[in-house]
């Protein structure tokens, strides 16, 4: 609906379908409830773009909203908490009538600020009406220790008082904070524990009695706001806490979580990562490589060397996938090849996207972030390789290496020449159909899949790998009594700079 078709003055509003009975006494929580019930009845999707919460988080949010409660989303970083809160705007009406120019979005039928009451008394039915769209009714604040009561609630503005010749106690001298400006909408506070305790106390009135007081003056604003919050459990001890009386006033505490399966993670990463880059160079990141990237995050979340209190954000696989795509682009441009096809070596080149997103425990610190990241990549390759090649006989390939065969691919070698080298290895190219590679596929696609097979055999310790010799066979020394690590914790044999 266009706003030009909607009433433009208070008189027109009174004569329209937007009667006082329709909007005058309906709170924003009731508005959200009504629209939510309608969407549930029609089967509309709630929170599109948020995956993995359909049977856990979303039903709990629905329960809280149907109960007209304020709520908090409690979860580790990278669990779509902010996205969910911003998605609440879809539950608001498309447009809402407010008195034009009002700082707190006053209801034309029930004005609460003095300026609007005086304006209506002066202009009557000619009072202009503004139609506020959904996004304008959402106010978000990132909590930081330096936030003040004036920022959140408001304060006396002495300059406004001087210009108007008013007493400082006059309501018209007030400068409204973020909370009053969110009137008749949704007010979200991210990272609530970071908010100083005395500021959290300032939220008591609005959450229980529905009003706020400014600067100790006998002024009460009966605001109409849906309050929602986010918090990270780590913050309770690391930086601050939610004071007990405030927790008691929050209707529901809803726990978020990471994707429950690799498939869910793949959907999220594919949706968020920038891999469709347009341009004249086609780009392909094979599905098995996307699985490897997602497995890295899942393995890191279970790794005892990674701090579980901090968590491993879903931003990790998203960033890794984007850097893998960039590495493939870079190689293709340097070699003047089309298309750009990502391969295992590109995952290693994306290690900065891993090391910067994991917090290590003491044992991990001793090993070093780079070493932990390489071992996570190797384990992810091994797990993905096992899924695709379980039951496939690759003995001919392994025996060729054991008989002295070696495969080393220089950085500058074109994919078609790499393919000639790969063809010399018995059985290496025979079952690439397990990775979705069709007969007659582009050389870069075939080489990427063959390299994944070699890397999978290395992850299973059936072949060895080193920068000097590439892939080869090297018998483990039993006297060491530990797993062989022929690569000595270094990067892949090829790095693309």
Write the layout of secondary structure elements.
Blueprint lengths: L9 H6 L4 H5 L3 H15 L14 H10 L4 E4 L6 H7 L7 E5 L14 H10 L5 E5 L4 E5 L6 H4 L1 E3 L1 H7 L9 E3 L1 H4 L3 E6 L6 H5 L2 H5 L3 E2 L6 E2 L3 E7 L3 H4 L5 H6 L2 E4 L6 H11 L10 E2 L2 H16 L12 H21 L4 E2 L2 H6 L2 H4 L6 H6 L1 H21 L5 H8 L12 H9 L19 H17 L4 E3 L3 E3 L25
Parallel strand pairs: 1-10, 1-11, 4-7, 7-10, 12-13
Antiparallel strand pairs: 2-3, 5-6, 8-9, 14-15
Helix pairs in contact: 14-15, 14-16, 15-16, 15-20, 20-23, 22-23
User: Would you tell me the structural class of the helices and strands?
Assistant: alpha/beta
Number of continuous helical runs: 23
User: What is Rg?
Assistant: 30 Å
Helix % is 40-55%
Order of strands, widest sheet: 4-7-10-1-11
Can you tell me the CATH class of the largest domain? Answer: Alpha Beta
Strand runs, count: 15
Shape: elongated
Main sheet? 5 strands, parallel
Say what the CATH topology of the largest domain is.
Rossmann fold
Task: Tell me the quaternary state.
Answer: single chain
CATH superfamily membership of the largest domain, which one? P-loop containing nucleotide triphosphate hydrolases
The residue-averaged pLDDT reads 88
How big a fraction of the residues is strand? 5-15%
Task: Walk me through this protein's architecture.
There is one protein chain. This protein has 497 residues and is an alpha/beta fold. The chain has 2 domains: 253 residues, 3-Layer(aba) Sandwich (Rossmann fold), CATH 3.40.50; 219 residues, no CATH class. It is 42% helix and 11% strand. It has 23 helices and 15 strands. The chain has a 5-stranded parallel β-sheet. A two-stranded antiparallel ribbon has the order 2-3. A hairpin with a 6-residue loop joins strand 8 and strand 9. Helix 14 crosses helix 16 and helix 22 packs across helix 23. It is elongated, with a radius of gyration of 30 Å.
